[in-house]
C-alpha cells in the first residue's frame, strides 16, 4: 500500500523557517517525480514546487521562488521542502504528491497524495 507521510509543519512567526518532509512508501521511489502543493481554507489546492526523479530538474510557483527549496533523498525515499522567510500568506495545509512520470503543476496529474501537514505563519 502506497503511503506518503508529511511531517514538519507547525506555527512560526513571519520571517521564520520550517522544513517539511515527506516519507514515501513507493515501491520504486526513483521512478516518481515529487511535488508539494498547498491549500488554504476556502481555496483551491495550489502548486508549490516539484522535483524530477533525479533531483536535477526543479520547478517553483512564482509566489515561493527564492524562499522555498525542494529536494529529495532517493536513498531515504524522502522529499523535502525548506521554507525560509515565511509570510502569513504561506499559511495552508501542505501536501506531498507523487507521479510516475514527469512532474506537473496540475493536481489532477498526480497519482498519490499524503494527508497533509498544517503550516501557520503569524504576523
Helix/strand layout:
Layout: E1 4-7, E2 10-13, E3 18-24, E4 33-39, E5 45-51, E6 58-60, E7 68-73, E8 78-83, E9 92-99, E10 112-113, E11 117-122
Could you characterize what this model shows?
By secondary structure, this protein is mainly β. 0% of the residues lie in helices and 49% in strands. Strands 2, 4, 5, 6, 9, 10 and 11 form a seven-stranded mixed sheet that branches. Strands 1-3-8-7 form a four-stranded antiparallel sheet, with no helix packed on it. A hairpin with a 4-residue loop joins strand 7 and strand 8. It starts with a strand and ends with a strand. 33% of the residues are buried. The mean pLDDT is 97.
Strand content: over 45%
Distance between the termini: 40 Å
Largest sheet: 7 strands, mixed
Low-pLDDT segments, ≥5 res? none
Number of helices: 0
Number of strands: 11
- Rg over CA atoms, rounded to whole Å, is 13 Å
Mean pLDDT: 97
Helix content: under 10%
Helix-strand pattern: EEEEEEEEEEE
Amino acid at each position: 500500500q502506497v503511503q506518503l507521510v508529511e511531517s514538519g509543519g507547525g506555527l512560526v512567526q513571519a520571517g521564520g523557517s520550517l522544513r517539511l518532509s515527506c516519507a514515501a512508501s513507493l515501491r520504486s521511489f526513483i521512478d516518481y517525480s515529487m511535488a508539494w502543493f498547498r491549500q488554504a481554507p476556502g481555496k483551491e489546492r495550489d502548486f508549490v514546487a516539484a522535483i524530477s526523479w533525479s533531483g536535477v530538474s526543479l520547478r517553483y510557483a512564482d509566489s515561493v521562488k527564492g524562499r522555498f527549496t525542494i529536494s529529495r533523498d532517493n536513498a531515504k525515499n524522502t522529499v523535502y521542502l525548506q521554507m525560509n522567510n515565511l509570510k502569513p500568506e504561506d499559511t495552508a495545509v501542505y501536501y506531498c504528491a507523487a507521479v510516475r512520470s514527469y512532474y506537473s503543476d496540475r493536481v489532477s496529474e498526480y497519482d498519490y497524495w499524503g494527508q497533509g501537514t498544517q503550516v501557520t505563519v503569524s504576523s
